[in-house]
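Section 5.1 Outputs to date
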Amino acid sequence: MTKPTLETLKKARQLVQTVTPLQGDCGLVCGGRCCQPGGEDTPLGMVLFPGEEQLLSACPGYEFSQANWRLGDAPATLVACSGHCRREMRPLACRIFPLAIYLDEAMHLKLILDPAAKFICPLCASGLGGLQTAFRQAVAACAKCLVQDPVQRDFIYALSRRMDQLRQDPFYRLAP
């Protein structure tokens, strides 16, 4: 596997450094549910984009784990914190949550609500329109930046197929 270009990853992270889904800290709405680690049997956290583990491994307070699902040939790497982290060191998935970058089968780039967010994020009830316009625009710019890197593009494509699988799960379809 080709190594991701860290410059691309850093640029993408910078594009979403200061924006948030709401005008304030959205973690205050739900108690930071997306920041809570799971147990040993059910690791939770945010998926790391290629190269992020290298960027974040020296940061204190992060728990890294392997997901019980795969992206391509390897388990996805997840990261969780205790609910409080340095905002400038947040993983990319945290910066764009509750959105997800999605590539359909024809490689068309879209922003969608992260299917996993449906279970934990109260902002999902308002749909994309409930999120600040500046946030959506910054995430779109981040997505366009990432797909220029072949490794990131392949990762996003594999993650998109995982999201497709999740949306087909009968339990997912039963959730509100």
